[in-house]
Structures are given as C-alpha cells and as structure tokens.
C-alpha cells in the first residue's frame, strides 16, 4: 500500500470515529435516546398512562403503534416506537397549547 493510500485510510477511519463520537455527544446533550421498540406494558410506563387509556387510544388510532398478531384478534398485541411516541407527545403538547389560545 502506498503512503498516500495508507494516509487516506487513516483519515477515513478518523472521520468515521469522529462522526460516531459527535452523534453520541449530540444525543446526550439533546437527551435523545436511540429508537427502541416497547411492549404495551413498557409503553404505559414510558407514557405514565394507565393500560385502559393506552388501549383506548390504540383502538381509536390516536397514538402511533403497530399491532402484532392475527388481524381481527380480540386481544391484539401492541408495539410502540420510542421515537414515534416522543414525536406524538410533542405534537399533543403543541396542539393543546394552540387550542388553549
């Protein structure tokens, strides 16, 4: 390998390491965690919401979620994305603020 190619490879590695470190620092400063998938019980805790309320919001399709299991099941399993829930919370807060004006 020529010295130029070796130098270019080192620079590329350093850039990638720096990108990763900066991304993690930004997440920490912005208090943003990587997206995770939550079960129904985990989503209740995450949202500080009762099971009854969360299940009603899911049935009414007023909160972002996906169902797991057979279509038309009487007892569907709900899964939630933390990123989608965070976005939903912000939108609800904005909507409530606008409607109160």
Beta fraction: 5-15%
Strand order of the largest sheet: 1-3-2
Straight-line distance between termini:
67 Å
The chain-level structural class is mainly alpha
pLDDT < 50 runs, ≥5 residues: none
Q: Report the order of strands and helices.
A: HEHHEEH
Main β sheet profile: 3 strands, antiparallel
Oligomer: single chain
Q: Give the helix level as a range of percent.
A: 55-70%
Global Rg: 21 Å
How many structural domains does the protein architecture include?
Answer: 2
Number of strands: 3
pLDDT averaged residue by residue = 88
Overall shape: it is elongated
Individual helix count: 4
Tell me what the structure shows:
The chain has 101 residues and is mainly α. It folds into two domains: 32 residues; 68 residues. The chain has four helices and three strands. The chain has a three-stranded antiparallel beta sheet. Strand 2 and strand 3 form a beta hairpin.
Please provide a brief summary of the model:
By secondary structure, the chain is mostly helical. The chain has helices at about 5-30, 40-45, 50-60, 80-100, and strands at about 35-40, 65-70, 75-80.
Outline the secondary-structure elements.
Elements: H1 3-30, E1 37-38, H2 40-47, H3 51-59, E2 66-68, E3 77-81, H4 82-99
Antiparallel strand pairs: 1-3, 2-3
Kindly list the characteristics that best describe this protein.
single chain, 101 residues, mainly alpha, 2 domains, 4 helices, 62% helix
